[in-house]
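We were asked to recover a plausible sequence for a given structure. The inputs and outputs are reproduced exactly as logged, with field labels preserved.

PROBLEM: sequence recovery
POSITIONS: 116
GIVEN STRUCTURE:
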């Protein structure tokens, strides 16, 4: 049996940009991606703490060290610059393997979006 569990999570980062006229996705600073074990094009769930919105999209790599968190495309309507969000990815794995798996969960500084 396989189950889905949390693989990676960036807990509480601040939206720095919202670009409605982009194809789609969420752009994340490469430093945050590395710390949370995200890769480009990985499917993620975005949870907006400010308004309760939940959506799925995929990751684009942002410039390292900038703290960029940019919601792109139609999902840009679901956030406002300054909103605090949580970004989560999941993995499917064997039930027994899942019992010992440790997700990568990071808690960046919400003012700068820098890895602490």
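RECOVERED SEQUENCE:
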């Amino acid at each position: 049996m396989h189950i889905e569990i949390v693989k990676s999570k960036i807990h509480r980062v601040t939206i720095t940009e919202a670009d409605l006229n982009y194809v789609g996705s969420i752009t994340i600073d490469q430093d945050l991606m590395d710390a949370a074990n995200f890769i480009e094009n990985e499917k993620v769930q975005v949870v907006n703490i400010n308004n309760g919105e939940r959506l799925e999209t995929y990751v684009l790599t942002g410039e390292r060290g900038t703290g960029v968190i940019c919601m792109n495309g139609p999902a840009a309507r679901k956030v406002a610059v300054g909103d605090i969000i949580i970004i989560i990815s999941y993995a499917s794995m064997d039930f027994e393997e899942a019992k010992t798996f440790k997700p990568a969960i990071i808690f960046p500084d919400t003012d700068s979006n820098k890895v602490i």
